[in-house]
Amino acid sequence: MVVGLDLGGTKLLGVALDPGHQGSEAVVEGKVATPTGTDEVLEAIAGLVADLRQRAHEATGRDVRAVGLGAPGLVDRAGTFRYGPNLPGVVGVPLAAELGERSGLPVVVDNDATCAAWGEHERGAARGRNHSLVITLGTGIGGGMTVKGEPLRGAYGFAGEPGHMVVDPTGPECPCGRRGCWERYASGTGLGWLAREAVRTGQAPSDTDFVARAGGDLAAVRGEHVVAAARAGDGDAGAVLDTFGDWLGLGVANLVNVLDSEIVVVGGGVSEAADLFLDRARQRVREMALGGERRPRVPLVAAKLGEQAGAVGAALLAALRT
Amino acid sequence: MVVGLDLGGTKLLGVALDPGHQGSEAVVEGKVATPTGTDEVLEAIAGLVADLRQRAHEATGRDVRAVGLGAPGLVDRAGTFRYGPNLPGVVGVPLAAELGERSGLPVVVDNDATCAAWGEHERGAARGRNHSLVITLGTGIGGGMTVKGEPLRGAYGFAGEPGHMVVDPTGPECPCGRRGCWERYASGTGLGWLAREAVRTGQAPSDTDFVARAGGDLAAVRGEHVVAAARAGDGDAGAVLDTFGDWLGLGVANLVNVLDSEIVVVGGGVSEAADLFLDRARQRVREMALGGERRPRVPLVAAKLGEQAGAVGAALLAALRT
In chain B, how long is the greatest CA-to-CA distance? Predict the structure, then answer.
C-alpha cells in the first residue's frame, strides 16, 4: 500500500491505495483543513499519514510502504518546497526529509499539478497516452506533462508552470509580479475577472444575473456566480464563458505548439463546469495549433479523477520512485 | 561517415562528418540555392548528397552510411513533410522515403530547429546539459528541446514551435493566421517590425540612422539596418534592440516556466548580433521566471555552431537513429 496526499492552500486531502491494482479506487481517504505555519503544516501531514496508514491496515491487513505528497509550488528534486504563492510562510522547507523523519517511511514530494497529471495518466483521462498534458484550473493554473510515458520534471523538478506563461504583457497584474499571465484569464480567478470586465466595458449590464447572484456587488462576482448564471440559461454569463473558452484554447494551443501533446486533460475545480466552455476551447485549439488540419486533432477532455487526482498521483509517484 | 543537410527557404546546406569524432568539424561541406517545386527540391537534395558522399570518400577513404535532413516545418515521425510556411508548394511530401529511394541510404528527416538543437546539444553550447532549449532566430523562431539528454519530438514529431506561442492576442498579424505570435517580435522579421513601430509611434524620429540606412524608406527597414546602426553607436537603434531583448526574454521565461530548462541557447542568423540584446534578455528572464531568485539561474547563451548547426545536428540524428 502507498499513501498519497495533496496539500492545498485550504485543505489537505489524502488517500491510501494499492499501486498494483488498476482501478483508481482509494482504499481509504481523509481530509483536514490546511493550518497556518510550517510546523503546523508538517504536523497535519504527519497526522493524516498516520491516520490513513492505520485505517488502510485495518481495511486490508497490509502495511503502507511509502508516502507521496503534492505541494502547490516549486518543489526541487530533493523534495524541498522552494516557493509557492498559496502557502505563504512556507519557503525553503525540506518536506521530504521532515516527513520521512516523522513517519519513518520513504517520502516523495513533487508539484501538486505534476502529481495530478500523473494520476490522470495512470488512472484517468490520459491513460495509455505517452505524451500528455494535464492542466488544473483552480485559483491559478497548474500543469503536468508526460514525455514517453514518464513524468516531465525538467532540470530541477520545476517543469509545468504554464499558468505563468505571459499571454498579454499589458494585461492585468498577477500576484507573481508580471502582467497578463495565462492564469489571469483561464483559471477560476480569471473567470471572475472576465465577468467583472464584461460589466465594466459595457458588454453586460450592471444588473445582469451573475452580478445579482453576487448580492448586486460587482466586486464580489466570482467564477461560481458566472457558472450558476450560465446553468440557469443567462446569455451574458454564456458570453463570458465563451471568452473564457477562447483564453483556455489560446493557452492550450501555445502549449501544444511547443510540446506536441497527444491529449490535453483539463482538471481542477473549474473543470466541473467543463461542459460550459470546453467545446469553445476545442474550436480555438483547432484554429490555433500550427498546421491546423494538417496535423492530427488533439483531444481536449475533462479530467476523470476529480478532487482525488493529486493525491492518487502522489501515491503512484511514490510507488514509482521508491 | 554520415551526411547532414539543412533545407532552408533560400539555401540548402550540407556536411559530411564522422559521428564518432567529438569535435564539430565537418569533413566536407556544400551549399546550393533552394529551387522551387517539390521535384526540384528533391533533385537538389539528392545531388548534394551524392556530391558530399563522393568528396567525403575522397577525403577519408570511408563511405557514408546514413543521411539526415532538417526541413523547415512540421515533419512527422515517418519523415513526411506536412507543412511549412517557408516552403510553399511542398506539402505532404514523404521526404525520407523519396530520398531513401534516390540515394539508396537510410534517411532520417526531422524539423530543422530540432536538428539545430541536437547539433548544439551534441557539439555546441548545450553540450553535457540534459534539459536544454535551443531557439533559432531567423525569419521566424524555431525551437528544439532535449529531455533527459534525448531530443523531445512529441506525440507526432511536431514538438518545438515556440515561435507560434501567442504573446499578445491583439498584436500584429502573423502569416500563420493568428495575431501576436512570439516570432512577430523576437525574430529577425520582428526586429525590423519593432524598429518601424518605434518610428510610427514617435519613439524614434523619421530620419533616424536605421531609416537612413534603408534608403530613407521606413517600409524598407529590416533587422540588419537596426543592427548596423546600433553597432555604429546610434541610440534609437539601441533602444529598439532593448525592446527586442525584452520580447526575447519574455518568451524564454514563458518556456522556462513550462519546461524548466537547464540552459537556453540562442541560434539562427540574428544570434550573430547577440552581444547587442542578450544581456537585456537575461535580465528579463531572471525577472520573469517563476520563483525568481529562489530557483537556479538559467544561462541564456549564444549558439556555437553558427549556420552549420542544423546540418551537423541532422547528421548526428541520422547516426543516432540508424
Answer: 63
